[in-house]
Write a structure and sequence with these properties.
The protein is mostly beta strands and about 625 residues long. It is about 5% helix and about 55% strand. The chain has three helices and 31 strands. The chain has a 19-stranded mixed β-sheet that branches. The longest helix has 10 residues, at about 525-535.
Length: about 625
């Protein structure tokens, strides 16, 4: 993906009236890449497909074991063990003949790494289900958990190849090695207690005490690595006390909960040293450029929610409405500090983000007959997100930076986050400043909108007629922004429809020179749109969409037709399709859901990757007697 070499989507940079097949097979008679643009890091897509090697393998073992013993009819003990082990092997080859690495007959490189991750979970539980009085029931659980995580990374890499086309780590002029490992543990104790009065009133409370190995233990008074997280919930089933022919179900609920968490990475509370490369045979030492933080403590997330659920006319019509207010404190973030300190950054526990909003679900059964049934449901969530605190000085905290776009995402106090930060024009008295070539000048970074939606939800319909069933799901997303590399590339390469303007005559920008005089310089279209791509606020697109997410059509064979078969009780066959098409979107040339990386640091950044996969297939479901 991205602007990285070896991206087979580089065919997008061809003019739209040229077939990609003219670049096949991507290499000449000597096996050297055929370069098709003025940037040899934009790999020929056929060369990428036919020559590049990306081999990803995973072996995984997941196991679980549990034992339960009933001490009495109302009390039991239980033990659980779960183990998850991943063994990954990744081989990447930049092949012989790759243009950007070409050096006579020497070129190419190889990287091979293995990663092992494992998690061991041990749980012990005591459970009680008991009737305290004739009207009050108790469900109680007391437990303890120990979680251990281990990670190890071993890698070798090198280049160029001594013997062309022999892709082995032993066949390189220079090689590098890398190794990394970490261990982390969390020890916890927890409880849950549910009190039910008759059938209409329930009070629940939970508590969890965690001790994280990734945080510093002072050994004096209370440890900073330990934290207690409680919750309490109450629900009132008022329909049990009302006698109404129209009201089938009615419930009020209110809850308050706190959760906690630890840093994403361990070893951030102390300085650790390593061995670096040798100089004249003498080993060197190094240490992390991130200033350790002795005072890190678990972050907390507190949430209050109140809601109601009601159903009418024998459950033919239902509403579920909730208001929530969620706030994080002591959120662990990276912070920038002056390089004069000897470090380039630090880790702080100062962040705070608030989310509040409303969730609504409407369900209905408009038609219900002997042969035909129609169920419909609609849900929507409206949320307001705001960054309350970053570091102690309130500085913006950078997240994902995408080099070609000259832009990034960041947390900004007072704004929804993460916020797209892109370059605006440079202005003088409200007018765009242009240089001596007539090109607009680039200004500073400005917030252009959040990558997270303000509203999202879906609409689902289910129909059944005799033995046939049909369903489809629409979902939508409104209020977010997408930072698009495809838009940037399309402008710079003259592939965007907007670049047709001024292509023959040149462009005069309605702006002013630095001295305030009007601009009359005619800039060439290529220079203008190349500059326009660098003024990156134009690459920030509206991420709204409505999609037909899923469609299903099925048929169930009647049981009577199968009565003579000895083993099979029922047969159902269904046609299923997902991600069919967009009913609405404002990103002309990309999928608005396209993502550069799954991390929140890169949410909302699009980098010339493939759109979401459209799948179509059949499901066969058999049930046996």
């Amino acid at each position: 993906m991205s602007d990285g070499p070896g991206n087979p989507n580089n065919g997008l940079f061809l003019a739209p009236n040229i077939k990609e097949s003219i670049l096949a097979p991507g290499y000449d008679a000597n096996g050297r890449e055929i370069v098709f643009s003025d940037d040899n890091y934009v790999t020929n897509p056929w060369f990428a497909v036919n020559k590049w090697v990306t081999d990803v393998q995973r072996k995984r073992l997941i196991s679980a074991l549990s034992a339960k013993y009933e001490l009495t009819k109302w009390m039991y003990v239980q033990a659980k063990m779960g183990y998850d082990h991943n063994n990954d092997r990744n081989l990447g080859v930049t092949p012989t003949g790759t243009d950007y690495s070409y050096n006579g007959d020497k070129s190419g490189s190889i990287s091979l790494n293995t990663q092992q991750t494992s998690e061991l979970n041990l749980d012990a539980l005591l459970g009680i289900t008991h009737k305290l009085t004739s009207d009050i029931n108790l469900d109680f659980t007391l437990g303890a958990n120990s979680r251990k995580n281990n990670y190890e990374y071993v890698g070798i890499s090198g280049g160029p190849f001594v013997i062309p086309n022999l892709y082995s780590p032993n066949n390189v002029v220079n090689y590098n090695r890398s190794y990394g490992s970490n261990q982390r543990e969390t020890h916890s104790a927890y409880y849950s207690a549910d009190f039910t009065y008759k059938t209409f009133l329930t009070l629940s409370t939970t508590g969890r005490y965690d001790a994280f190995s990734t945080l510093y233990n002072s050994g004096i008074s209370k440890s900073k690595r330990n934290i207690f997280s409680p919750s309490v919930t109450a629900s009132f089933l008022f329909s049990e006390l009302l006698k109404s022919s129209s009201l089938s179900f009615g419930k009020l609920r209110v809850s308050y909960a706190q959760t906690s968490g630890e840093p994403t990475n361990p070893y951030q509370t102390a300085t650790y040293y390593g061995v670096g490369s040798a100089i004249n045979g003498i080993s060197t030492g190094n240490y992390s450029g991130t200033l350790p933080n002795l005072f890190l403590k678990p972050y907390t997330l507190k949430e209050f929610e109140i809601g109601t659920e009601v159903k009418f006319f024998h459950n033919r019509l239902g509403f579920d409405v909730a208001y929530f207010n969620r706030k994080s404190t002591n959120e662990i973030m990276n912070a920038n500090i002056s390089i004069a300190t000897g470090f380039t950054g630090s880790v702080i526990a100062n962040g705070s983000i608030q989310n509040k909003g409303i969730e609504v679900m409407v369900t209905g059964n408009p038609i219900k007959t002997t042969n035909f049934n129609w169920n419909i449901s609609f849900n929507t969530t409206s949320v307001k997100n705001e960054v309350l605190k970053t570091d102690a000085a309130g500085n913006s905290l950078g997240l994902g930076t995408y080099r070609p776009l000259n832009a990034n995402t960041a947390y900004l106090v007072g704004y929804a986050g993460p916020q797209v930060m892109a370059h605006d024009y440079k202005y003088l008295s409200g007018k765009i400043i242009v240089d001596a070539s007539g090109l607009p000048e680039q200004g500073g970074l400005i917030p252009c909108g959040s990558v997270l939606p303000k509203m999202y939800g879906g609409l689902k319909n289910d129909f059944s007629y005799k033995n046939f069933n049909l369903s489809f799901l629409l979902d939508y997303n409104f209020g977010n922004k997408v930072l698009s590399a495809t838009k940037n590339y399309a402008l710079k390469r003259g592939l965007d429809k907007a670049t047709l303007v001024g292509r023959e005559t040149g462009i005069v920008v309605a702006g002013v020179q630095e001295d305030g005089s009007a601009n009359t310089v005619n800039a060439s279209a290529q220079d203008y749109y190349t500059r326009l791509g660098d003024i990156s606020k134009g690459n920030v697109l509206n991420g709204d969409y409505i999609k037909l997410r899923q469609f299903t059509l099925g048929y169930t064979v009647p049981e009577k037709a199968l009565s003579q078969l000895p083993l099979i009780r029922s047969i159902q066959i269904s046609f299923v399709a997902r991600n069919l098409f967009c009913l609405l979107k404002h990103t002309d040339n990309i999928d608005p859901e396209a993502g550069f990386n799954t991390s929140i640091n890169y949410a909302g950044i699009e980098g010339t990757q493939l759109p979401s996969t459209r799948t179509m297939g059949f499901n066969l479901n058999l049930k046996f007697k």
